[in-house]
Amino acid sequence: MTESEARRIVADAIARVAPEVDVEGLDPSVELRDEADLASMDFLHLVEVVSARIGREIPERDYARTATVDTFAAYLVETAQ
Fold this sequence. Notes:
- By secondary structure, this protein is mostly helical.
- The protein is 56% helix and 0% strand.
- The protein has four helices and no strands.
- The mean pLDDT is 95.
């Protein structure tokens, strides 16, 4: 998986979970829960949507690595191998 593919997966998931968020306007280095104003349950839903899209579970121990668009994309690229 490339970095751009990973970013697209994250962006698509954000758009699905929080359609009111301007995904293109998000700062990719700021925590998603703050930047997109996601409640805890919304964030968990986001992780579930991405998990379903990539076809594998994201373990709870790795949630810290999914905090921003940048770290989430990097995590997806790293773990795809």
